[in-house]
Amino acid sequence: MSLTSEPLRIGVAGLGRAFMLMLPSFRSDARVRLVAAAAPRAESRKAFEAEFGGRGHADVEALAADPEVEAIYVATPHQMHAEHVEAAARHGKHVLVDKPLAVTLEDADRMVAAADAAGVRLIVGPSHSFDAPVMQARAMIESGEFGAVRMVQALNYTDFLYRPRRPEELRTEEGGGVLFSQGVHQIDIVRLLCGGNARRITAMTGAWDPERPTEGAYAALMSFDNCTFATMTYSGYAHFDSDIWMGDVGELGADKTPEQYGKARRALAGLDAQSEARLKSTRTYGSGGDLPKARHHEHFGPILVCCDRADLRLTPDGVEVFGDTQRRFIEAPLGTSTRETVIDALWEAIREARAPAQTGRWGRASLEVCHAILRSAESGETVALTRQCGLTDQETTT
Ligand SMILES: NC(=O)c1ccc[n+]([C@@H]2O[C@H](COP(=O)([O-])OP(=O)(O)OC[C@H]3O[C@@H](n4cnc5c(N)ncnc54)[C@H](O)[C@@H]3O)[C@@H](O)[C@H]2O)c1
Fold first, then answer.
1. Is 123 exposed, middle or buried (0-12, 13-18, 19+ CB in 10 A)?
2. What are the residue ranges spanned by the domains of the chain?
3. 333 upstream amide cis, omega within 30 of 0
4. Of 97, 155, 287, 291, whose CB has the highest number of CB atoms within 10 Å?
5. What's the confidence (pLDDT) of residue 284?
6. From the alpha carbon of 60, which atom of ligand 1 is closest?
7. Is ligand 1 within 6 A of the CB of residue 166?
8. Mutate-to-test residue for ligand 1 from 57, 81, 98, highest number of ligand atoms within 8 A of CB
9. How far does the centroid of ligand 1 lie from the alpha carbon of residue 225, in Å?
10. What is the Å distance from ligand 1's center to 19 Cα?
């Protein structure tokens, strides 16, 4: 592993929506340089070459073999993550793979094993566990000032199910529905705040719209090995918008306006599956359009952490502390971009040989929870978790 201070030379697999969301951080952070990409659409490859002067490859195997590339950001659809991470590892490239790690636990095992065998880093992110206020709350908990974490409540009401989708994003067995795309954010956050080692899940799910036949909502109770417990509630069918409890700041850190209300459902009205997938592709790289300016950190809905000596409320700007006799606010200053913490993790892993919490094993543990929620809802039983890892259970070679 090279320990220089040269910028990380990143290759990107998949120039879609996820890449668009990472783009402001890649553009503004001097620690990274985008040197190549793989994308099936020529339009995206051309736009990438024009902006970054790097090389556009037609497939991920060629990207992984590119000697200019040092690490690969895998931002292709969930079900392709395993194949693309394995290709990267085979060519000795470090990997940042967007959440979820994979759809099946078998694929997750293959990915962890491939990174271990190749001696490369495997980081799963970005997920909202990288949001600066979440990381700040984790550091505050670790300081010991507030005592043990006893209970966490996480809730998010969004229009997720009515944003434009590829057809497989509405089929659970292919990783569709809210668990794999959204639940995994909430699970990552809650595991990070509670120490990682979840033990049991009791859950119910809702699949309420026959036109979009996958889980759009869930409520889950998750317990940890230190008697801590957490509730996680999510609705992707929501008419209520829980961002109003976050100061009208949207998930990506931009201020919301009243005119945005109902936009997703309005845009979807009357579209067939093909037109819907086309609409989704207009939100990708090389199709024009940019993200609204983030003036706050990203967030994933209201989160309360109850500790022995204080309750902590996460906001898009920091952490509000409700102590025994005093209430105060600890700001998390906005750096060069909202996803700077993801670049921090990549940099530390590759340049400083320090793994973040969110390794391949961590991602596999969060994926196990997604499946456990589905199983518990189906069976009506509490499901035991057996593939968990803690915050300091760092990879040996990845
Ligand atoms: N962390 C986040 O905030 C966030 C947000 C959105 C999506 N995601 C994740 O990113 C992944 C992609 O989702 P998305 O919404 O960006 O989908 P998308 O359809 O917008 O983008 C996927 C891209 O991959 C490309 N692609 C498909 N097959 C490919 C191949 N064989 N080689 C190279 N590129 C290929 C497609 O052309 C497309 O541009 C998913 O796993 C999703 O969970 C994460």
1. buried
2. 8-128+339-359, 129-331
3. no
4. 97
5. 80
6. 32
7. yes
8. 98
9. 35
10. 7
Q: How many helices (H) and strands (E) does the chain have?
A: 12, 15
pLDDT score for 398: 34
Domain 129-331, CATH class in plain words: alpha beta
Q: Is 101 in the pocket of ligand 1 (CB under 6 A)?
A: no
Which of the 8 DSSP states describes residue 201?
E
* CB of 126 closer than 6 angstroms to any ligand 1 atom: yes
CB 178, CB 160: distance < 8 Å: yes
Give the pLDDT score at 33.
98
Please identify every stretch of the chain with a pLDDT value under 70, giving residue numbers as ranges: 1-3, 288, 393-398
Cα dihedral: 61, 62, 65, 67 (round 10): -150
CATH fold of 8-128+339-359, please?
Rossmann fold (3.40.50)
* Interatomic CA distance for residues 300 and 302, integer angstroms: 7
75 lines ligand 1 (CB under 6 A): yes
- The CA-based diameter of the chain, rounded to the nearest angstrom, is 61
Q: Which residues does residue 229 pair with via DSSP β-bridges, in sequence order? A: 151, 223
Of 39, 98, 91, 48, which Cα lies nearest the Cα of 70? Answer: 91
